[in-house]
Amino acid sequence: MSAAAPRTAAGLRPDVPRSATSWWRPTAAIVLALALALAASGPARAAAADCDRPAAVCERAVAAALPLVDGGVPATVYADESDFPAVLRAARDLRADLSAVAGREAGFSTAADATGRTAIIVGTLGHSPRVDRIVRERGIDTAALTGRWEAYLIQVVDAPEPGIERALLIAGADRRGAIFGIYELSRRIGVSPWTWWADVPPPRAANLHIAPGRFIDAPGVKYRGIFINDEDPALGGWIRETYGSANHRFYERVFQLILRHKANYLWPAMWLPRAFYDDDPRNAELADEMGVVIATTHHEPMMRAHAEWEKYGEGPWDYARNRERLQGFWRGGIERLAGREAVVTLGMRGDGDEAMTEGTAIELLERIVADQRAIIAEVTGRPAAETPQVWALYKEVQDYFDQGMRVPEDVTLLFADDNWGNIRRLPEPGAARPGGYGVYYHFDYVGGPRNYKWLNTVQVERAWEQMRLAWAHGVERMWIVNVGDIKPMELPISAFLDQAWDPDAADLAWITGYPAAWAAEQFGDAHARDIGEILTRYTQYNARRKPELLAPETWSLLHDGEAGRVIAEWDTLEARTLALAKRLPASHRDAYFQLVEYPVLASANLNRMYVAAARNRLYAAQGRASANHWADEAQRLFERDAELQRIYEREIAGGKWIHMMSQPRIGYTHWQQPERNVMPPLVQVDVPTRGVTGVAVEGDARPWPQRAASPRLAPLDPVGAPAREVVVFNGGAEPVGFTARTSETWLQVSPAEAEVDDAQALELAVDWARLPEGEHEAVLAIRGSDRTEVYVQVPVRKPPAHRGARGFVEGDGVVAIEAAHHARAVAPAGAEWQAIPNLGRTLSGMTLWPATGSALTPGGDGAHLAYPLVMDAAGEVEVRVVLSPTLDFRNRGGLRYAVSVDDEPPQLVNVRLDPTPGDRDFRAWEHAVIDSVHVASSRHHVAPGANTLKLWAVDPGLVFQRIEVVADPRPRGTLGPVESRRR
């Protein structure tokens, strides 16, 4: 189906807005903010305003509503014994879900004769005689389901059969259609897909009613699934402890999770020695019985796991030298399918997820694919095109495709991201292909520039933005995401699969409200907004530098007050998280700790530990006695990390999640993880007994008086830097006193004298009213009781007032602006500038949507964002544009934007990032994924006072986060300066 065409045109959900699927009971304010977010996300019980919508589930009854739970008594679930085993299993799950919600056992029956006032009847069209009879005798229109992959209908039916007055009918076009209709009802009555995997308790209700009418739905993306990967030590250790091996008992839980999200597709765990088919023959049988499509990963062709070649293969993994043995190996993979549903991976990569030898790789791969398809046709007895196949354009295989390698048109082309959430290539919009297109995306990765496996670092807004881009370019056949250990990726897994179900409904309003909607599904409405905000801030903070990439030098102690600001943000978030934990009922304690509390506390603790280690190193180098305190503090925080892990694994849910947080995250020295957490090197100093006066100043790591030259501050100014940090510290054990005096009456210092045990910050205050415009100089004299003397040079700049000029005002040599804070947004007809909240490191991202058109010409009335500036003086400036690290997904030599100031011609800037090692743009890509942004720059001339900067859209797909106009290019912190004042 076309990405541009609304799916309601074909009869799906003809009268039903998606918000009818909402379940929780929000306040009016939340309803307004989240109505669209709830639409496609699947949460169940409807808001009061939605209770009249067809098939909405509410505790209060609307006219002609059908009771699902009546006075604590749940309705009986009926199915046909002749239906698919997968449907019968889902029907029994519905019975269990109703029982959990009602607090009383619900009935289940496959008997031909039914009795009771109300019932829930489920089944597959053409495979359930009961459902077929009701459809025929009651004249139910199922035309919208005919031939539609995984479509289902939910409808209240009067007198469906003798003995039943009214029933809820759930009819599927195929077996998964019926399954998804069943699990849709489970979500609507309040049962989260994470009820087992995150210990989310179903909300109890004495009465639940479903509104009359009909609800028809079907997926947008055909194959929607997850890839369990990089599963040791965390998930792998938990599997061994809980199940012994990755057997069918483990996979039963995985299959339930997938199906409850209305997904259908799995790449099983494959780290050595795991092999889905070989580990337990029951694995594949159960997948088929439950209705899950199994495939093998991007580097495991022909339904054979990599571990199986390790076990059974003979000779090298080299088709040029070992063709016959490899063909036999692959033939065995197709033979054991035995007619089960699958998607077969084609092609071949080097042994162990590595590249093949270069040179003849393309010619050899084309021969391999042809031979593999011949095996498929021979074993199945049907043309190869009748067996779903996929060719994964992952890493170097993408390069082969770019160089002209092709596979038959019936094969799905699976494009990939760069392992860091940035899609590498997409088809041209409207480029039809019988096999369709897919995307392989990552929430977890093992590889350069560094592994990231421990916690969720995915901003759902960025994943949504990239997958929306894919959908708009016609990627409708397959969405598969690497989820690592499954936990703790709960939030992004839900968002990814919910978006895949209905990409058209997953618009900007949907993703804006998704965290709160998801929180409501897990914890109820009362605290949904607060929990959603905590999840949003936590993922934003962790995404700007992934935990594995943190180091003592990450957050600057010298510039922009950055380390202090970062820790203050984490402190605030942690306090908010702990306060909310006290307000939740005890029944939600386990789920809250897993989904919210542990990720926040552990991340805050890790950032504090690295900043403590940074203070220890800096203070030791400066000769501060407090260096030893910070070494002790870093060690305490290192031990606190282990304690938080212990609580997660051994206390929460009765120790159910043993090993699950065992992924090492501290002590990385290169891309690969350490074997265990390793404390960053710390420094212990010998502290003399006698007090020793020292001075440190902002922006300089050097101490005084050990250095010969006098310290000099960066200039103070009234807008961006009204104060600078000067610290008097003690290098000894005994207290030391000091006095501080300034050379000018317009500069005051406080305190003017004090006794110092550890350190004392001095506050400088300029009387700006007494100071004329221009450059000024003062001296701060500090004298210690140990006869130490330090003279700090204090330059002060009072810029012209530029009265009447409006805009973002230069301060501290820079103008920093969040891209969303534009004064004017100009878009071409049929497009709009959209602000995507929480996309990026600081506030949001601005993008021109839709992003499927041709390149635009900057200038004139072209698409642009305008920002008014107030600059101190005329001169040349550097305009740094901070962008999300979007790749050249159209393969046209980069993605361009343009910048102009006032009447100058727009200056084109080309963003070139390439994850291919050895490419000229590889280092730029590495820096971009480490920093989660790419900073591009251009140089421009500004006038004193008012200026207008315009940011021009040229190539589609770029996301702009912020702009920094730099007049003074001194060092800054990792995140850049705070946003400038606007007048």
Automatic annotation (TrEMBL):
Q: What is this protein called?
A: Glycosyl hydrolase 115 family protein
Domain Gylcosyl hydrolase 115 C-terminal, chain residue ranges per copy: 807-979
Q: Which residues cross the membrane?
A: none
Q: Which Gene3D superfamilies match?
A: 1.20.58.2150, 2.60.120.1620, Chitobiase/beta-hexosaminidase domain 2-like, Glycosyl hydrolase family 115
Range of residues in the leader sequence: 1-46
Tell me the keywords, alphabetical order.
Hydrolase, Signal
Return one Gene Ontology term, BP aspect: carbohydrate metabolic process
Q: Which residues form a coiled coil?
A: none
Q: One Pfam family name from the record?
A: Glyco_hydro_115
Which Gene Ontology molecular function entries are recorded, alphabetically? hydrolase activity
InterPro entries recorded: GH115, GH115_C, GH115_sf, Hex-like_dom2
Q: Does the keyword Hydrolase apply?
A: yes
